[in-house]
UniProtKB/TrEMBL annotation:
SMART domains: HTH_ARAC (SM00342). PANTHER family: ARAC FAMILY TRANSCRIPTIONAL REGULATOR, HTH-TYPE TRANSCRIPTIONAL ACTIVATOR RHAS-RELATED. This is IS5 family transposase IS4811. Regulatory protein of the TOL plasmid xyl operons. XylS activates the xylXYZLTEGFJQKIH operon required for the degradation of toluene, m-xylene and p-xylene. GO terms for molecular function: DNA-binding transcription factor activity; sequence-specific DNA binding. GO terms for biological process: positive regulation of metabolic process. Pfam families: Cupin_6, HTH_18. GO terms for cellular component: cytoplasm. It comes from Zestomonas carbonaria. Residues 198-296 form the HTH araC/xylS-type domain. It is found in: Cytoplasm. Its main location: cytoplasm.
Length: 297
């Protein structure tokens, strides 16, 4: 798999598409803080998005946004208005449509929840707000997914929960692709967009057990060893082999939670010739040995 797909497998993404919010006239609604990622998409109308301690941002029709480790926030027709409690509105609603005064503005929203133990793999490389404007070329693809999501929510057919969850996963990947293409992201996600560093990352993820040397990765990237090592650290934030060890340890921790896990087999599958070397690397990262981690889990 490619690096983003690998990370998604460890995140165990749960997509929760909540409802279509509709509002008209003068309105303002406050939503509670949400761990991991919340998304919103302006299906119709424009409105203001106000994150705590941040300037109001105008959301135009067709815009999609992700809020990372989302604080309490407000959406409103006018940022000066006093907001009502969004949780109460949603609790009183019937079905997957929440109406507050009209339907001039329509917002599709939901959230993505991850396995907390691995959430940092993605959360650490994302800014608090990712906005994909409606006139961005990537929005054409997002609009198709959003329309399918909205249709599924409103129709309430057999298997709706499964379909909306899968479409939610697609939406998140499409939004992250758009973010990566913008040149804004940092860390491994941003590095994937670099043709040479991205090639090295894909090589590592494609053969995680290989005894990689910096020279090998530089060759995969088509760069000299020194240029590659410097550029990799600039883009990813870690030296190449440190990144590889970190990724191996995340894979190891995930594998240790599986029934019948064997430390020896996991060590070999990740390229370690001895349990001792594997155990030392694991303990340096997580503060306890693999066997103690497996026992406690």
């Amino acid at each position: 798999m490619d690096p983003l797909s690998d990370v998604f497998a460890l995140l165990q993404v749960e997509a929760l598409v909540s409802a279509r919010f509709e509002a008209g006239g003068d309105w303002a609604v406050r939503f509670p803080a949400q761990p991991h990622i919340k998304f919103g998409a302006a299906l119709r109308g424009r409105y203001w998005l106000i994150l705590d301690a941040d300037i109001p941002r105008l959301i135009e029709p067709g815009d999609t946004y992700l809020l990372t480790n989302c604080p309490s926030y407000v959406i409103a027709s006018d940022p000066a208005l006093q907001p009502v409690d969004g949780s109460a509105l949603y609790a009183a609603a019937h079905g997957n449509r929440v109406r507050h005064g009209g339907e001039d503005t329509q917002v599709l929203g939901g959230s993505f929840v991850f396995d907390q133990r691995n959430a940092g793999l993605l959360m650490d490389v994302l800014p608090p707000l990712i906005r994909i404007p409606g006139n961005d070329p990537a929005s054409a693809v997002l609009r198709i997914t959003l329309q399918l999501l909205d249709d599924e929510l409103q129709a309430q057919r057999m298997g709706t929960a499964v379909v909306t969850s899968r479409l939610g996963d697609v939406l998140l990947v499409q939004a992250l692709r758009a973010h990566a293409a913008s040149g804004a992201p940092t860390g491994w996600l941003g590095a994937l967009g670099h043709p040479r560093i991205g090639a090295a990352l894909r090589s590592m993820h494609g053969d995680v057990a290989r005894n990689w040397k910096v020279e090998d990765l530089a060759s995969a990237a088509g760069m000299s060893r020194s240029d590659f090592a410097r550029k990799f650290k600039e883009r990813v934030g870690l030296p190449p082999l440190d990144y590889l060890i970190r990724w191996r340890m995340h894979l190891a921790r995930h594998a240790l939670r599986q029934e019948g896990a064997s430390v020896a087999i996991i060590a070999r599958s990740l390229g370690y010739s001895s349990e001792s070397a594997f155990g030392n690397a694991f303990k340096r990262m997580f503060g306890r040995s693999p066997k103690r981690y497996w026992t406690n889990e």
